[in-house]
């Protein structure tokens, strides 16, 4: 059984979709496509950039919130002097908490991707049709 991708994957032999060619822009296309240049480069990668910013924001939020909590716990337990953000970044507590969060997120996303390659849900646009072979990808 050859698994190639989820229902949303592009066919293996398709490198670019014709709709992604900015030369096919119409007056109703988004303005970065009509303008071209740097706005187009940013727009073409906007999903990745947005996800990267969300990741960075959650990382920094965890670092700042975790530092405050860690300082309070250390002061109560041992009377240790407060530490700064950079010191907390180098603690095993920070990385243990981070890895637990990332592990659960990657497990959830990975399970959805892998299960969608083999399992089907009748009538779902996120699923391959019930009668399609496992090796097929999206159209």
Can you give a write-up of this model?
- This protein has 139 residues and is mainly α.
- The protein is built from 5 helices and no strands.
- The radius of gyration is 23 Å and the shape is flat.
- The two termini are 20 Å apart.
Shape: flat
Helix content: 55-70%
DSSP summary: helix tally: 5
Poorly predicted runs: none
Radius of gyration: 23 Å
Classification by helices and strands: mainly alpha
What are the secondary-structure elements, in order, as H or E?
HHHHH
Strand content: under 5%
Please give the structural blueprint.
Elements: H1 31-35, H2 37-44, H3 46-77, H4 85-89, H5 92-118
Characteristics:
55% helix, mainly alpha, 139 residues, 5 helices
Condensed summary:
By secondary structure, the protein is mainly α.
